[in-house]
Input
Amino acid sequence: MRHGRHAAIGVFDSGVGGLTVLKALMERLPLESTVYLGDTARVPYGTKSGEVVTRYSLANAQALLEYDIKALVVACNTASAVALPALEAQLPIPVIGVIVPGAQAAAKATRNGKVAVIGTPGTIASGAYQAALAAAAPSMEVHARACPLFVPLAEEGWTEGAVPQLVAEKYLGGDFLGGVDTLVLGCTHYPLLAQIIQGVVGPKVTLVDSAKATAERLVEVLRERELTRLERGAVERHYLVTDTPARFLEVGARFLGRPLSGARQIDLHVK
Amino acid sequence: MRHGRHAAIGVFDSGVGGLTVLKALMERLPLESTVYLGDTARVPYGTKSGEVVTRYSLANAQALLEYDIKALVVACNTASAVALPALEAQLPIPVIGVIVPGAQAAAKATRNGKVAVIGTPGTIASGAYQAALAAAAPSMEVHARACPLFVPLAEEGWTEGAVPQLVAEKYLGGDFLGGVDTLVLGCTHYPLLAQIIQGVVGPKVTLVDSAKATAERLVEVLRERELTRLERGAVERHYLVTDTPARFLEVGARFLGRPLSGARQIDLHVK
Output
């Protein structure tokens, strides 16, 4: 493995959700090749324990390392929340999660110092956003809530109408928001429900999606390590999945905002 | 392994849902010991391919065989739909799925020969219920629909109120029912939503849940093979899970209708 400027950016997620992050990376760094792995045979991670998510994350990273990658983006909030220390300890390349960039973007966006974060049960229970927000701005008031039904709604394509409206009201209504002016969408599926969520929380609340902030962080890391690709050349896009590709290609196009060229099924040897 | 009358009944499911089947088995066969395996590290199966579900099912069965079981109940509709032939080919003990008993119960229940079945995308796409219903009564008219949001609703505990009501109306309203008088709940999670579903389809439609029919089928199989336990003795209940047990114990109590004594975490070496 060379890990040089010509190597690709590796990206993994539990499934299709991380394609919203990949999309931001491709827009911000159009010269860079990418290898995306969706662990569709074990999706979702958000309802599983930190121990199991860490094990799966290490297996994903090992599979991506076989593709000569120079940096790894963990495009899954749950994996970023629980597996980043293990990944950083075991990998010879820089590892970028989505949580610290998302928390920093929220700290920049808030004017009244009150921020809410929503995510999967795994992400919220880990306390990783709460810690990252506290690190970004120690005096911040943080509200956090798990919204497990948002993922299946987004995957089912029910992103408008009465059902997502009622679900969003149930999760985000009442006193939960408590005067926050910023809401972090702490799961890569949630941007698909942004319109419904914005309607429920009202126009005064800024929604923060960590995809763009993560792309900016990657730009910085590549620059610091002198790993940015400098000249134009053939840009490769690889998509790997652990289940059969059909559903990934179908649902993934909605997340990436364009059709996917194809995906290769691989086996991960995990316990 | 003895596989004798004293051996236990092995039961597996992708997670907690199969506890509704275990409950029916424990009620019908109170003298029999049971070993239940919930593959909580890979749950759910319903949105995954037949290839992956078969691989996971074989690993579950191998783990249960280490417990001296005399019969295997596949308490997961999706696994019953796609993995039964592979399990029957590889195991030295009888294997009982939930689909054929459920289809036979529906064939007995219908008066007008029109039956609907609902289940996960994997179960419905497999055509297994449609085939089993046709085998039970060749002239039957069968309607089938995948209802993927019912599983996360049941796991979230949202089994009454406006959200499950609207979701049920969206899946079961319109022309889908088409005059059927029997509706098969082709997923072990759906009995938790039975009240909402009954309200939407109306009192004239009989709901069929395959748990009891599967328990009756197991009684027959044990009798035919002379494997029924005859005398009273210590009855053992083992619960195995592949993720950490906390969530399984919490959600599982709702499915089993009583607290679980504890669960042991095991590793399955699957790809």
Observations:
- Chain A has two domains: 8-97+212-265, 100-210.
- Chain A touches chain B at residues 40-43, 47-49, 51-52, 148-149, 151-153, 155-156, 158, 162-163, 166-167, 170, 242-244, 246-247, 267-271 (CB under 8 Å).
